[in-house]
Amino acid sequence: MADQVLKTHNLCAHYGDFQALFDLDLSIAEGEVIAIIGANGAGKTTLMRSIAGLNSNNAEQIVYRDEPIGALRADQVATKGIALVPEGRQLFPSLSVEENLIIGGRVGRKGPWNLKALYQLFPILEERRNQPSTSLSGGQQQMVAIGRALMANPDLILFDEISLGLAPVIIKTIYDALPNIIDDGMSAVIVEQDISKALAVSARFYCLQEGRVALEGDSQTVEREAISRAYFGVH
Amino acid sequence: MDWINALIQGILLGGLYALFAAGLSLIFGVMRLVNIAHGDLIVLAAYLGLSVTIMLGIHPLLAMFAVVPMMAAIGYVLQRGILNKTLGDDLLPPLLVTFGLSVIIQNVLLEVYSADPQKLDAGTLEIASISVGDLSIGVLPLLTFGIAVAIIASLHWMFYHTSLGRSFRAVSDNQDIAQLMGLNRRHIFGLAMALALAVTAVAGVMLGVRTNFDPSIGGARLIFGFEAVIIGGLGNLWGTLVGGIILGVAQTLGAQINPGWQLLAGHITFLCIIAFKPRGFFPRVSG
Ligand SMILES: Nc1ncnc2c1ncn2[C@@H]1O[C@H](COP(=O)(O)OP(=O)(O)O)[C@@H](O)[C@H]1O
Ligand SMILES: [Mg+2]
């Protein structure tokens, strides 16, 4: 099915003897925005790292537009058009704000995003462009992290807890910018612990619990009670 | 006057030590690799310089244009073929492997070139000097110093103003996230080692022109390089030049007091400095 941008088949992940993900089957359609929710330690970040190629898998476990990519290295996955905004921002401290953005564009894919477009989206970054990335506030750093991923002009962008540790007003700024970002037919995965934020911007969701999908469905029609049950594992 | 002369000789000698150290500093900065074989690679470069000068009948400084790309190629292959496999959270494997490499290089050099001391013949350049007042400054040490400053300046510029330098800094900061930017760290590490050994090639040829060398002298060059890097502060290339100069001056002033004290004075100065400034004068890398 070519209208699926990404599918996982029995995706598992291990850290040594510890198994973090169990046989996950997920799919994301072209242009779709899905949410991954789940409590701390549910395996959301592990899932993002697996898709991005930072955790290794069997080739067939992750299929991107009919191509098995599970066994590729992260740099190869990046050139295919998948970008990750990692949890905790993880900017390069030795690089200035602008250098962080430029290095994001290294993969050299064509598309709407470049420095100019990003500075229009987040004008504060242009003001701060020559500062070390570590001198920015948390919210501004998150803008750089998002910008860095966009610079790759990805077809699929993964956001891992972009609101973590930020003030509500900053979270609002960033979430207000999301529709502009995800326009243009880009597909997106939004990982959040804040359930209402995640459901508001997504079409479908998966709720993870201890490395398994506990619930999946339509973000707009799902009942809150069903989510609480899946989220906390009360039966 | 003797003292001023010793001081100037020491500063110029520091240039050579900075050349020994720059490659070490670069690879430690990019991939946290401590290369025990670095001194032997310097000696290998001197021998390659010897072979090229003999085979082609050219001046050693000209031979450098052949030795530099040879060493760079060796660096890339060495990194991708062996050293990348040793890198990880544990610092011990790269230490052991580069130690083994050091032994192998020494033995191969011994086998191919024998233990007889060799020297690169730079002709009249070796005795040329310029007079400044009562002082006479050798052209060769001056040239070595000039080359060292030029190389450090270029490396610094490369590190902070080019796309390759940006990739080096990014990989050094966070290897995983750098991979997400489409950077293959194995390739970047290969390039860093190639660059480090290109600098080492220059260091080896300048060493061979300056003094006799034989397969066993790598260890001492490694120590001088380490001392310069640590005095200057890890991860700071200009600091490495300053470290080299401090070490060079300490040695020549020590020798001025008593000719037998040259090396001892250098090591004691190094120990005093790390006793009071354990992170060197201009540290840039934390941890
Ligand atoms: N590097 C690691 N080594 C060992 N265990 C890990 C590592 N990273 C995550 N884990 C474990 O894997 C599980 C899932 O973690 P994670 O994917 O970070 O969850 P989430 O992002 O949903 O909070 C947790 O139990 C966590 O302790
Ligand atoms: Mg997480």
Automatic annotation (TrEMBL), chain A:
Organism name: Leucothrix arctica
A GO term, aspect molecular function: ATP binding
Name this protein carries in UniProt: ABC transporter ATP-binding protein
Annotated transmembrane regions: none
Classification via Pfam families: ABC_tran
Domain ABC transporter: 6-235
BP GO terms, sorted: L-amino acid transport
Entry keywords, A to Z: Amino-acid transport, ATP-binding, Nucleotide-binding, Transport
Family matches, as SUPFAM superfamilies: P-loop containing nucleoside triphosphate hydrolases (SSF52540)
Recorded family membership: Belongs to the ABC transporter superfamily.
TrEMBL record, chain B:
MF GO annotations: transmembrane transporter activity
Protein family (similarity comment): Belongs to the binding-protein-dependent transport system permease family. LivHM subfamily.
Mode of membrane association: Multi-pass membrane protein
Transmembrane segments annotated in the record for this chain: 6-29, 41-58, 64-83, 95-115, 135-159, 188-209, 229-249, 261-282
Pfam name, any one: BPD_transp_2
One of the GO biological process terms: amino acid transport
Name this protein carries in UniProt: Branched-chain amino acid ABC transporter permease
Record localization: Cell inner membrane
Protein keywords: Amino-acid transport, Cell membrane, Membrane, Transmembrane, Transmembrane helix, Transport
Major localisation: membrane
Alphabetized PANTHER family for the sequence: AMINO ACID ABC TRANSPORTER PERMEASE PROTEIN, BRANCHED-CHAIN AMINO ACID TRANSPORT SYSTEM PERMEASE PROTEIN LIVH
Gene Ontology CC: one annotated term: plasma membrane
